[in-house]
Amino acid sequence: LIQFQKGQTPTPPPFEIFLCFGEEWPDQKPKEKKLITVQVVPVAARLLLEMFSGELSWSADSIPLQISHPDLKDRMVEQFKELHQLWQSHQRLPGAQPPPG
């Protein structure tokens, strides 16, 4: 993610996790042809990628996390707010490189 943000790699890192149930995988069959596949998208990873790629479309005050333990959700929201503020202050520093794109 850091290399992507610095423009050192052209593509963002993958953050989706694919699970396959009931069949061997990986094999020659594409995942779309498997009986049961699940795609897991960690919200935290997606938000970090959006933040560092400049595609951030959420307000730091209204992060739609779906975590069952409320204290954990509150801590994560606060950490994302702090990370977002640090990132914004870094972008304002003299000599800071603007994100690619």
UniProtKB/TrEMBL annotation:
One of its GO terms (cellular component) is nucleus. GO terms for biological process: immune system process. Pfam families: IRF-3. InterPro entries: Interferon_reg_factor-3, SMAD-like_dom_sf, SMAD_FHA_dom_sf. It comes from the Eukaryota. Residues 1-53 form the Interferon regulatory factor-3 domain. One of its GO terms (molecular function) is DNA-binding transcription factor activity, RNA polymerase II-specific. This is IRF5 factor. It comes from Tyrannus savana.
